[in-house]
Amino acid sequence: MRQKIERYLENFQKVISLDDMNDFHSLSKDELFTKLLDNAIIKQNISIENNQILTEILKPLEEKRKLSIEERADIEYFFQHLRKGFDSLDNGILYRLSKLLLEDSIEQNDLNKIVEGIYYFSYYEYVLQSLFPREERACSWDKILEYEERYDQLTTEGKKIFLRCYGNRILSKEYSFELHKEIYDFIAHKKEIDPNPDIPYDTYLFVIDKNICSGIETIRSADVTGQPVSEALIQGVYTSACRIYDDIAKVSSTSFPVYQEYVYSYHAIRFHRHMISIDEFLTELKRLTEVKEEYTLQQKTSAIVKMNAYWIYYLRYKYNSPEEIKKEIDSTVHEILNFIRTIKPSDYTRSMNSNMLSFLQTISTYYPYDFLEDLFIKTTTKRHTPTLIHTLSVAEISKILTESMLAKKPEFFLGILEHYSLEDIQIHKQEIIDLSYKMGIMHDIGKYYCIPVITINYRKLEEAEFQTIKQHPFCGYRLAKNSVPDPICDAMLYHHLWHNQKGGYPMNNAPTINQPLIDILSIADSIDAAVDFLGRSYAKRKTLRDLVDEFQNFKDTRYSKDVIELFDNPILFNRIETFLNEGRHEIGYKAFCKEV
Fold first, then answer.
1. Torsion sign, CA atoms 229, 231, 237, 238
2. pLDDT tens-digit series, residues 324-362
3. d(Cα 129, Cα 471) in Å, to the nearest integer?
């Protein structure tokens, strides 16, 4: 089995190297697409081979067969080598593998392996559900409670992992002072009766107090909405923040991003308890944005991006108008953007990605839509070129379909925007075409949240990964809803919902007046996804004729009959086919080799 595992890992590293696009910028258009096509074929072959190897590796676990010592060692070797710390490049497979390993450990009643299994399975479960609303998460950290009475039987390493599991339960729940107290009391008691020098202080510190940041978010949100917050919660956060702040010198230097977060929380709770003024608080936040010479890239990102985002957020407590805030933050925002553009796509971690998105969400209140649209596109260019190619292609197809529909059946658009009449539609034709294009550009913004979680494009998605991907409409909507026009918000939220609202996702949403534009976008999205062999090399590329024939089976269910019937026009059909064969390559060349 070890030989097969080594082959799988070798293939896996090959895929990663093929996706490193840093050397593509000097290529001509023909050279680029020859290279991309060659890479796609290699990835397709790797997909076939690795799927077969994975089936063989997992077969004993899938069949619930008792593993030999050698088999278990091989599978654990595979698991550890497939990981990259906590920024794994294949969370979907690790989720499936950790679940099977946990089930085997329970079957064998190996306590230390069970605790380790709960930890890893719950972690990857959490990663794949991290985009879900909290009330929809079903993480398994609580399984550790079944083994609470056997804590003393664990090895030192087992105890470390148990403590992390015990505290991590807060990650999948709303902030709760009662839960926080239970966690603190348990771990403080264990530390007191078993002061194990091999369990670092960081373990106790992070497990006991990691949820103070969630508490701060609850208090901060309550300030905005006017909702009451219990004194117990405020006091609990304050007590924890003071404890962390007093003990920060005991935290290892590798924990600087967390250190910054805890110092922020300490000053934030003091501000919310009216112990320091807003000016004093803002001064402390600015200190946290300073970069030290020894900082790693992740530590720099935490300081420059995340701490500045907090600083920008709290300016609302000092200034009365968005205009005043924008004037104050403008130079800082551009400094942050310049820093973000220096980060290579391959250097991003999940934490860094989260920092950047929080920053974008924070500034979206203060900048006009045109600035934000340009910013989103350039950020995509720097970070995930296949997504950029897809969005630009969908935008172009949407534009072509909208032009054709306006010429053939303008009444299709009745009621859109400001309840347009037929006369309004005739007057605002170009505005409608431009809007359709912008909806295509922005519809997949929520994918930026998914990129660090779903990073593999050489195989079909695991079911758990697909459930995560289904969150991207909500993610895009939450990111941009404060600054983006309603029709474009509709595009982000509804582009995977069926025309008749009886399929797709998200379900249970009221129809929008901009449904005609969504209908066009949905077909454009499906067309580009189906012809994309370069970005989805595990799938066979379909022709436009194949797709149009398939669309006939979904008239007025998944897709609008009126949009499907546009393809009866050979001129339109040929125009889109030409774009797919030539225009899409031009977009790809610009995206890979030029600044879009």
1. positive
2. 999 999 999 999 988 988 887 767 777 788 888 889 889
3. 9
